[in-house]
Design brief:
Elements: H1 2-16, H2 20-33, H3 42-45, H4 47-87, E1 90-91, E2 97-98, H5 104-125, H6 134-177, H7 185-193, H8 197-216, H9 229-241, H10 245-259, H11 268-273, H12 279-294, H13 308-313, H14 320-344, H15 350-363, E3 382-387, H16 393-405, E4 413-418, E5 428-432, H17 436-442, E6 447-451, H18 458-467, E7 500-501, H19 509-522, H20 529-540, E8 544-546, E9 549-550, E10 566-578, E11 581-590, H21 597-608, H22 610-616, H23 622-629
Helix pairs in contact: 1-4, 1-8, 2-4, 4-5, 4-6, 5-6, 7-12, 9-10, 9-12, 9-14, 12-14, 16-21, 19-20
Length: about 625
């Protein structure tokens, strides 16, 4: 049940989040130009209802249609939702159109439904399309089915969703009028930690908030889940009272990311370390909601992400101090309750909780980890190493395993990809345990081999033994380009002397990753935002490779911030803790295409020579490191 709710919330989020910019624009216009705004302007304020009643529902419906039915589904969703909008509109005394309730919920239903309809039509027509009539059929099918869906929206979906929204609004008003709204924090805070918040926030709070803004110019619904105060109180408690040095030292950085960056997920592992701590943010948020209810507070639009900056930006002029006070109340109460709980608890391992959170986040995608049937050695032709971005960890793992196996199984192709882009002809997929469910979804046909690190894991030895049985022996002639890649000339500028720093010191892996990211940025390889993506990638699953080597890099979503391929090398002779291991060599990676893969291959070659590897960990000779890698 939890998986289904999580998957549902992710689907809703997928429709809303790409269009958050439109919500913010609408919120700013409301905050600035309505009669009670910062700079009242009746003409500009007239833009606001058109955005709320037409633009935003069309954007959401078209996105939902695209998620289900592709580009044709996008057009279908936009057409169909217009029926919902018209179905709740009325005619004014002057004959003009008076819009009814905002059809955000209608858009979330109609968009995917319309996309599904056209998708089913396309599947039925696959292989039956008369030659020369493709364009005619494609255009008319969208037009006809779009019209039908718009009519259904007018008579059925629109009025039904309007009635549901009215019931929900009435329920919210009852809670507010009877002082019971603070009780929703009992559900909100645990839901956030369990990744159920999207189903609540985007499925209920956003449409209810939009309806209230249309009537009153602001809504308390936007303040329930996005208040950064409860999480800030938890992080402050760990900063001051945690007995674990790593946890205590990590809290200040987490505070900045959470409070100013609006990434609430950063504090979830701290709660998972001591589940009783959840009481702090629950009561803290309840107190803040009670305060907001008493003071008739509200926001003009959804603060996304839930940063203090966005929270205040969406606050009406007359409520700015109230918004700040509400965040302060939530922070103070959460801190006062969480602090003794943290202080009385034993030293907990933050990294274990981060891995647990990553597993829960992956579980929220609604996929399961299959056991995967073991392949006979002779059946295996392609082995795929996968990591989150397909940029660093998996590339090194694939290179090392390819070099290891090519002498006895030259017929096997060993490649690396992102875990979400595993090719359909993969026979075996190798990935870290935390990414197993994503790999299974990407390549359900493949045997799954899960590992702790890509260099020295015993499961890699077992895989090697599996693939090198007598029955698998292949003739030397099979050693073609499919398995052994032609060595390319290393691209100039991917590694430069200024990108190698020796004798560095860092207390935590976060500091080491920050230093690597800043050096990549300084040398012009990446934008500054890539550094945050490197930290976020580390929280998904560790980039420690084994043998004292770590290769931090950004998430797959951050590839757009990479200007050119580059690698930097930071040497830490005393080691930097990466979980239970220490890394003496930290390779910061940013890749465009495969330009950096040759250097990763060279790094793997260095790893084969134990003496060279050990010297690289302590030498002060930058040229030695440069020559060994290039």
């Amino acid at each position: 049940m939890k998986n289904k709710v999580q998957a549902f919330g992710k689907f809703l989020s997928g429709m809303v989040m790409p269009n958050i910019g439109a919500f913010i624009a609408w919120g700013f216009i409301t905050a600035l130009f309505i009669e009670a705004g910062w700079i009242p302007n009746a003409q500009l304020a007239s833009i606001q209802p058109f955005m709320l009643h037409f633009l935003i529902p069309v954007l959401i419906a078209s996105q939902g249609g695209k998620m289900v039915g592709g580009e044709r589904g996008r057009v279908m969703g936009a057409i169909a939702v217009m029926g919902c909008i018209a179905g709740v509109a009325t005619t004014g005394a002057d004959g003009g159109i008076v819009t009814g309730q905002p059809m955000l919920m209608g858009a979330m239903v109609m968009g995917p439904l319309a996309g599904w309809v056209i998708k089913k039509f396309d599947q039925a027509m696959d292989g039956h399309m008369p030659a020369g009539f493709e364009m005619l059929i494609n255009n008319f099918s969208v037009g006809i089915f779009g019209m039908i869906m718009a009519i259904i929206g007018y008579y059925a979906i629109g009025p039904v969703m309007s009635a549901i929204l009215s019931v929900l609004s009435a329920g919210v008003n009852i809670l507010i009028n009877h002082g019971l709204l603070p009780l929703v924090s009992i559900f909100i805070e645990p839901a956030k930690v369990l990744f159920l918040n999207n189903a609540i926030n985007h499925g209920v709070f956003t449409p209810l908030g939009a309806d209230q803004v249309a009537e009153a110019g602001k809504s308390i619904m936007y303040m329930l889940e996005t208040n950064p105060g409860p999480g800030l109180g938890v992080l402050l408690a760990y900063w001051f009272f945690s007995k674990d040095k790593m946890t205590r030292d990590s809290a200040p950085g987490a505070i900045i990311i959470h409070f100013f960056g609006g990434i609430h997920e950063i504090y979830f592992p701290y709660i998972l370390m001591n589940p009783l701590v959840i009481v702090g943010p629950m009561i803290g948020n309840a107190c803040a909601i009670l305060f907001f209810s008493i003071t008739n507070a509200g926001l003009n639009g959804p603060p996304a992400p839930g940063s203090i900056i966005a929270f205040l930006a969406m606050s009406p002029r007359e409520s700015m101090i109230i918004s700040i006070a509400g965040v302060a109340i939530a922070t103070a109460v959460s801190f006062l309750i969480s602090a003794p709980i943290v202080k009385m608890s034993g030293a907990k391992n933050l990294e274990e909780s981060q891995n647990q959170m990553a597993a829960m986040k992956a579980e929220a995608k609604g996929t399961a980890i299959p056991s995967g049937e073991k392949k006979a050695a002779g059946e295996v032709k392609k082995v795929v190493f996968s990591c989150d971005a397909g940029m660093g960890s998996s590339a090194m793992g694939a290179t090392k395993f390819r070099n290891r196996i090519k002498g006895v199984r030259p017929d096997i192709t060993v490649i690396n990809t992102s875990v979400d882009d595993v090719p359909g002809d993969a026979d075996i997929v190798v990935c870290q345990t935390i990414l197993a469910d994503r790999a299974a979804k990407s390549a359900p046909q493949a045997q799954l081999v899960t590992i702790g690190n890509f260099l020295t894991d015993p499961n890699l030895d077992a895989l090697y033994n599996q693939l090198t049985t007598k029955e698998s022996a292949a003739p030397a002639a099979a050693a073609t380009a499919t398995a052994v890649e032609t060595k390319k000339a290393t691209k100039e500028g991917v590694l430069v002397k200024a990108g190698i720093k020796v004798g560095q010191k860092a207390a935590t892996k976060e500091e080491a990753i920050q230093a690597a990211g800043e050096l990549l940025c300084k040398l012009g390889y990446v934008d500054a935002s890539y550094i945050d993506a490197m930290q976020a990638r580390e929280k998904i699953v560790t980039t420690y490779m084994g043998m004292g080597v770590a290769i931090p890099h950004g998430t797959s979503q951050a590839k757009g911030t990479v200007k050119k391929s580059g690698i930097v090398v930071l040497q830490y002779p005393d080691g930097v803790p990466f979980g239970d291991e220490k890394a003496q060599l930290v390779f910061g990676i940013a890749g465009v295409g495969d330009e950096h893969l040759d250097l990763l291959s060279n790094i793997c070659t260095v790893l084969e020579d134990e003496d060279d590897l050990e010297k690289m960990k302590t030498t002060t000779d930058v040229d030695f490191i440069m020559n060994k890698i290039k």
